[in-house]
Amino acid sequence: MYGKRSKFLTVMVTIGMAFFYIPMILLVIYSFNYSKLVLVWGGWSTRWYKVLFESEEVWAAVNMSLKIALVNATFATILGMLAALSMVRFGKFRGRTLFGGMLVAPLVMPEVITGLSLLVMFITLKQFFGWPENRGFATITIAHITFSMAYVAVTIQARLTGMGQSLEEAAADLGAKPFKVLTSITIPRLTPALISGWLLAFTLSLDDLVIASFVSGPGANTLPVLIFSRIRLGLRPDINALATIIILVVAVCIAIAALIMFRQQKRDLLDQQLAEREK
Q1: Rounded to 5°, angle at Cα 112 from 109 and 114
Q2: What pLDDT does 279 receive?
Q3: Dihedral (C-alpha) 125, 126, 129, 133: value to the nearest 10 degrees?
Q4: pLDDT of res. 201
Q5: How far apart are CA 79 and CA 85, in angstroms?
Q6: Residue-wise over 125-155: b if at least 16 C-beta within 10 A, else e?
Q7: Residue environment code for 252-274, b if the CB has 16+ CB neighbours within 10 A, otherwise e
Q8: Kindly report the CA angle at 149 between 250 and 226, in degrees rounded to 5?
Q9: Segments in 90-190 forming alpha helices (H)
């Protein structure tokens, strides 16, 4: 019975993985297609990578997307960490339930509603204060921080909940100030969650299309907006090349993050074992 169940799960996992990864593999293969027609194989070639690297429009969109993603990921991680610390370490406080609900609201709110509400806010700010003059880098970055901060907060909150407070309490008993405890014990132990949250916010920013299309203006295209606008006019082989490069970069980042998290988990396990021996 157990063997049949194991085989069934193996088959289902294999089908699921194939369903997810086969389209990516096909996309990578067709990025080396010589033909101008995406779905007509014309032989192996790297010509579309050359076309991609010579496109100023693409590199302008890549530059803007990377800048927005870096700023968004950094600020979203800082704000998400502070929000998670407030929910887990500060105990009960007035408005905690409301704060928690508002914190996770972007997770369930449709992106169309989020983008539309932010657009209305920016238009209202311009009418009353004259800012922003143009919708672009600043408006997209603020919009991305608004929704990606919630994902970071949930990630760090889960880590804080399962981490325990024994080391923090011991440091406080030995006379360490709260800020010292935070910077010397809490944040280092949160490193895996912080890295995961930062990468998640970075990826969400690079991937966002709906919200960016609402809060961006003329001449301020992010990479997803540019790709979508080009696909609407027909598939182009250079887009396959661009997608292949993105897949490669994301795979490298995931591998690095996994390695860092694995090493941190080993350190935490050693710390726990040492603490148990001292007891």
Answers
A1: 55
A2: 59
A3: 130
A4: 93
A5: 10
A6: eeeeeeebeebbbbbbbbbbbbbbbbbbbbb
A7: eeeeebeeeeeebeeeeeeeeee
A8: 50
A9: 96-108, 111-129, 137-163, 166-173, 178-181, 187-189
Which residues of the chain fall short of a pLDDT of 50?
A: none
Amino acid at 67: K
What local confidence, expressed as pLDDT, does residue 5 receive? 65
Beta bridge partners of 44: 33
Q: Which domains does the chain have, with CATH numbers?
A: 62-237 (1.10.3720.10)
Return the half-sphere exposure (C-beta side, CA atoms, 13 A cut-off) of residue 217.
Answer: 11
Say how far apart CA 18 and CA 15 lie, in whole Å. 5
Please report the pLDDT score of residue 191 as a whole number. 86
Residue whose tokens read 């960490």: 81
Q: Is the pTM of this model over 0.70?
A: yes
CA–CA–CA angle 179, 184, 190 (5° rounding): 100
